[in-house]
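Quick start: what a row looks like.
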Amino acid sequence: MHSTRRDFLGSLASLPLAASGVVRSGHAMAQDRYPIRTIKLIVPFAPGSSTDISARTWGDVIGKQLGGAAVIVDNRAGAGGNIGATAVARSTPDGYTLLYSTATTWAIAPLIYPDLAYQPTRDFLPVAVTTTVPTFLVVSGDSDIRSFQDLGAHLRAAPDRHSYGSNGVGANSHITCKLIANRLGVPNLLHVPFKLGSQGVMSEVMAGRLTFAVDPWSVVGPLVRSGRLRVLGATGSKRLSVAPEIPTLGEMLHQEFDTTTWSGLWAPAGTPVDIVTRLHEGIAAGRKNAALAKQFEELGTPLMPDLSLQQVNAFMKQEVDRWQVMVKEAQITV
């Protein structure tokens, strides 16, 4: 799966650098005047989450690239990201309310929620993909579980005594933990979703009330360094430069395992093309900042390649197919 994804990302470079599915028309007035008031980035996850951290950084970037515009983050957590996404889908398409989220709300939610209040391809215009978001498998720093092999042995010995937490039903963290449980032979392990997201989950893992969880390095790294969490493995296709000593689950399972997700920016459908283009170009310009690239690398969420609007659309469409395979294996439904 991950080799196909890498090949696909490489092939995007051959696509023409133009927008897909939209044609420039008379929105010069909107482009010239935009923005004239505060831009709101709705993040459908709790403060302190990896997505929240990323959104605040990109909000600053967008504001600077748009001439010093004010950009604020509005956290609307709940229902695995669906509450915040729905709020954006129902907002006025004028470029002042945007969605900063992950593959969860775009590619995963439609596969899990039969009565989703929004439809991504109908209700949103992709603007940019910003960072890759690999996660790390962690347990309490006080746990007797000292390795991935230990985790499997503990789970299989007493599955009714163990559980895992996530940022909500259908979230990337839920699917990743469910796939880990499946691969370790305990598919019916108790899942505990948290509306408060990363902070709630990690507090319970550190206290030993949850056996394991996953989250990006920006969340777990400081807790690992302090000894409050112990990291057992990385869930991406390759080791990260921020923690090169941590093996991937694929290495330890001797089989393919890659649940890397990504963050991105969307506007409500109907947003003027010139505004979407300006937002896209603002992120593209910010991406060239070497200090910004280093910052995201150190957070364990490396920048995505610089993609045109057409390439962004192609990438997101391909991601739906990739996640469909994993959701089917995880057998998560509501």
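That is the whole record. Residues 16-29 have pLDDT under 50 and may be disordered. Strands lie at 39-43, 71-75, 97-102, 124-133, 136-140, 163-166, 190-193, 213-215, 229-234, 261-268.
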